[in-house]
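User: Could you check the structure of this?
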Amino acid sequence: MRAPGARYPKGMARLLIALGLFLLVAGVALALFPRAFSWFGTLPGDLRIRRDGVSIFIPITSALLLSGALTLVINLIAWFLRR
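Assistant: Sure, the predicted structure tokens are below.
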């Protein structure tokens, strides 16, 4: 009898390794080039509301851009894993 989830250990391991490598590269890029990403959060469409000591930040455009980039990366990783 197999343990739950034991059917896909190779695929899950590859996915976790790819995700870890992506996070490592992103972390190194942020540490080495902080000015390269200074535009993030200041795009047109990112809402910033400041009133009476309260600050609200809603990064709509930045979230859409990040979502599109992550979708592209995840689909590329999935495509490479299917090969």
